[in-house]
Amino acid sequence: MERKLAIKIENVKKQYRLGAIGGGTLQGDLQSWWARVRGKEDPNSKIGQKTYSGNERFYALNGISFDVYKGERLGIIGGNGAGKSTTLKLLSRVTAPTEGTIYINGRISSMLEVGTGFHPELTGRENIYLNGAILGMSKAEVDSKIEDIIDFSECRQFIDTPVKRYSSGMYVKLAFAVAAHLDSEILVMDEVLAVGDMKFQQKCLGKMSDVAENEGRTVLYVSHNMNTIRQLCDRCIVLDHGRVIFDGDVEEAISIYMNAVIDLKQVDINLTDKRMKHLSPIILAKMTHLTLLNKKNPIYEMNENILFKLRIKSEENLSNISVRIEIRTFDEVSVGAAIIQNFSCINKEEKDFVFKFNPYGLIPGKYSALLVLYEVNDMGVYNDLDAIFPAFQFEIIENQRFSEIHWNMSHWGKIRFENLMLMGE
Length: 425
Hints:
The chain has about 425 residues and is α/β, with parallel strands linked by helices. It folds into 2 domains: about 5-260, Rossmann fold, CATH 3.40.50; about 270-410, abc- transporter (atp binding component) like domain (Coagulation Factor XIII, Chain A, domain 1). The protein has helices at about 25-35, 85-90, 125-135, 140-145, 145-155, 170-180, 200-215, 225-230, 250-260, 410; strands at about 5-15, 55-70, 75, 100-105, 110, 185-190, 220, 235-240, 245-250, 270, 285-290, 300, 305-315, 320-330, 335-345, 350-355, 365-375, 380-395. The strands form 4 sheets. A 6-stranded mixed sheet has the order 5-6-7-3-8-9, with helices on both faces. Strands 12-18-17-14-15 form a 5-stranded mixed sheet, with no helix packed on it. A 4-stranded antiparallel sheet has the order 10-11-13-16, with no helix packed on it. Helix 6 runs parallel beside helix 7. The protein starts with a strand and ends in a 13-residue tail after the last helix.
């Protein structure tokens, strides 16, 4: 059976001009133009602001091409600035391509950011009708779906309240409910579900899977959460600097994306400016430097010990410090943790401590380590003194003992336990 084409993108480029366009007033633009003609400094530029000539441009998208078929659930991943959101904006007709052609077979319902398509002065109910009208639906058609939309959004109590009074989470819930239930053949979702709570995220992912499988609707989904990409998508595209570098299997796409953002060269790491933002501005103790010992590259065989030297600077005498190392995959899924407790630091002293960590059973792959320096007071309350993520990154490779099995990471997990023992037949 021949698949029906929903979207076709051919050699699409999107170019933007660098710098501000216009000074806000005709007088300011004339002043800036006259200064450029005479080779003088722009009198309207701010202190420290870089000025660009009118010819400086960059490509947010630089010749991408791919097809999407009816009923597909396509994930689009890549680093910040790779062109993901620009692609969705072009498909949603928010902006037009500089070059290339886009073919769309069907109506598109888009959710590009919180509150897109909503009028803040209108109530939730009125915005549902407004979005339906934008999609070309009649009032009777919206009437037949509005109760399902309200129930799904979990906003019935506030549905007749102007949406300007909604929280960001309520905005997302109603916006997604509208996009998912109104009559459109193509559903376009940027990373907006991160605002909603976990329960609603799972509800949304289930709904997107359902409309693709049972209603034949096409879903395009952009996210930095690789677990939701795995859960929803049956195909994935990786973008890098405005180009498609991979189009195919989801797990392979995630692996390529992760490898593109990983630097596995550092074994001597300055931690001074890597303090996590949630911590108190009052610094009692700080991790300042980390060295992976006996390694030129942070690559370890399975079950090989990781030795690292951690330098800690204390601003006062601390006698009950603890260190916790948490291992995470590169899509930030926690794998496990290890803790050492009750060691001391002396006031104004910067001291090196050597730790041994055994990542026993951790299967081949690339990982990040979160390091937390903390103390526990007399009441048993944890107080984080310092926390750094990623403190370092490393790779586990197979050794001969475990090389006989190809481990299915996406289904079997990241830790390989000891082999089963046959006790009798």
